[in-house]
Amino acid sequence: MGTESIVVSGVTKRFTMQYHRTLKQITIAALRRQPLGETFLAVDDVSFTVRQGEAIGLMGLNGSGKSTLLKLISGVMQPDGGTVRTRGRVAGLIAAGAGFHPQLTGRDNVYLNAAILGMSEAETKRKFDQIIDFAAVGKFLDTPTGHYSSGMSARLGFAVAAFAESDIFLADEVLAVGDQPFKKKCLQRMAEIKAEGRTLFYVSHSPGSVRRMCDRALVLESGRLGFDGPVDEGIHYLKYDASDSRPEDDEIGADI
Amino acid sequence: MTTTQAAHPDRVPDEPLVAPGDHGGLHNVFRERYLLRLLVKKELQARYQGSFLGLVWSYVQPLVRFLAYYLVVGYVLGLNRGVQNFPLHIFAGMVMVHYFTETFSAGTRSIVRNGGLIQKLSMPREMFPVASMLVSGYHTLPQLGILLVAVLITGWDPTLADVGAGLLGFAIIATFGMALALLFSAANVFFRDFHNIVQTVGIFVTWSAPMIYPYDRIADLVGGTWIEQVYLANPIANGVLLFQQLFWIPTTDPDTTPIPLMPDHLLTRGLIVLAACLVILAFSQWVFSRLEGKFAERL
């Protein structure tokens, strides 16, 4: 058996932008010979292989297809062309926010989320205190998550994913919503995840944290894989190193 | 800085490479029983969120509906005189029709309502309509309890075949409701019109089964014609008749007028209809798995 953890080959994902949704709109547009919709490639013929335990920094400008690629790897979306294959359990946080049910309390959401990530009831109970400790939601644990602030919600979501048993950990702009102390905690936790030999797939706009965390960089440009190689060269490729970013921003990131 | 040396071959999970998000459909839903239980619990909480009376509404709505049917149809239209134990006839049918419409309508909305989870996490999406069906079943239990008390008070002497008929009727309604919920929940992601269709179908369903009128009305009107065959092929009508075979027929006296009438070969018809419902369920699952790859982007 090989040591590949993620194998992406020739993957394409096409999105359709619909201009018209109702029958009336569609009819009128058709009569006027206007286009009914337009498709574009969010991910365009991307191929790469990740071995177990590698830490990948996925970079690229907004709208370059990073989150879509993550959704394809996590199985939330299916590719239109090519194949994605993964080995073992996948956990993570996609598009800076957890899949929470706003009407359920933080506690119930932790159990539900953990179950979806493949954890049993006993496993969740064992890790529950760690998760709550990390997320630091305090007295809001038994409040519906709909009332949470975006930061609080992201903290809890990250905590569940970070303490779930997984072989692949996906982190999508996790640092974008947290405050400074939480960002530090996240980076620390991701370093632990990496040290445990799990595959880390980290999306970030912050060159400092990618440099610190990752062994390899992938850069997406309008859906195409523009660069695959050493982190420093990847950052240079994106011209993120030439910027006038202040040094203190560099480390934990102007994660916007 | 050197790269790509950090692989951990010692931690490679002892599993093959698989396509993520391929959960293998309906039968795998019942393997993940713990997750299903959590979803059912969540749905139970969500359905009466912020409501003061909560589960009591599960009794109030059927009760009001029952009274309306019974008073209007039984007394105003006078059907009460034409059917033995008419209240039981209505109520047995209503339990099944209500179970079906609840499964169908809640199931159809289930995927869209759980969009937040579906867009972020990968799981068998069939979970949601299945959970809706189980929750609707849970809400049917109090009604079944009331029905049971009512038949026992009236005097109830079912045979083993009657019990079989009742179970068969229930299986038909559950399978048919599940099949439509699966199909429409997927379709509803693409066009939200579908949950309006469901409401329209719900109205039709109430009148398509012998609930507020007895079967002998149908036999009088179209007995022996192909229309009767079509009527009996409807899974709702079929399921309701089978259910009444358990909860209504054993309370009646076959020798007094009005003589209760049931279609011939009821059990055989039921088995055929159940087989057809299973085929429809398989078809719905096939359509669902075709469409589910697009859920995350269309929600």
Oligomer: heterodimer
Radius of gyration computed on alpha carbons of chain A: 20 Å
Pattern of helices and strands of chain A: EHEEHEEHHHEHEHEEHH
The class by helix and strand makeup of chain A works out as alpha/beta
**CATH architecture descriptor name of chain A:** 3-Layer(aba) Sandwich
Strand content of chain B: under 5%
How far is it from the N-terminal to the C-terminal residue of chain B, by CA?
43 Å
Which blocks of ≥5 consecutive residues of chain A have pLDDT under 50?
Answer: none
Shape of chain A: globular
Describe this protein's structure.
The complex is a heterodimer of chains A (256) and B (299). Chain A has 256 residues and is an alpha/beta fold. Chain A has a single domain, classed as P-loop containing nucleotide triphosphate hydrolases (Rossmann fold). Chain A has helices at 23-31, 66-74, 106-116, 121-135, 150-163, 180-195, 207-213, 231-237, 247-252, and strands at 4-18, 37-51, 55-60, 81-86, 90-93, 168-172, 199-203, 216-221, 224-229. Chain A has a 6-stranded mixed sheet, with helices on both faces. A 3-stranded antiparallel sheet of chain A has the order 2-1-4. In chain A, helix 3 (106-116) crosses helix 4 and helix 3 (106-116) packs across helix 5 (150-163). The longest helix of chain A is centred in the C-terminal third of the chain and has 16 residues, at 180-195. The radius of gyration of chain A is 20 Å and the shape is globular. In chain A, 52% of the residues are buried. The model of chain A has no long low-confidence stretch (mean pLDDT 85). Chain B has 299 residues and is mostly helical. In chain B, 41% of the residues are buried. Chain B is built from 13 helices and no strands. Chain B has helices spanning 26-29, 33-47, 57-76, 86-113, 115-118, 127-154, 160-190, 194-208, 215-222, 226-233, 235-247, 266-291, 295-298. Chain B has one domain (24-40, 57-298). The chains are: A alpha/beta (256), B mainly alpha (299). At the A-B interface, strand 1, helix 2, strand 4 and helix 3 of A face helix 2 and helix 5 of B. Chain A: Belongs to the ABC transporter superfamily. Chain A: This is ABC transporter. Chain A: Residues 26-247 form the ABC transporter domain.
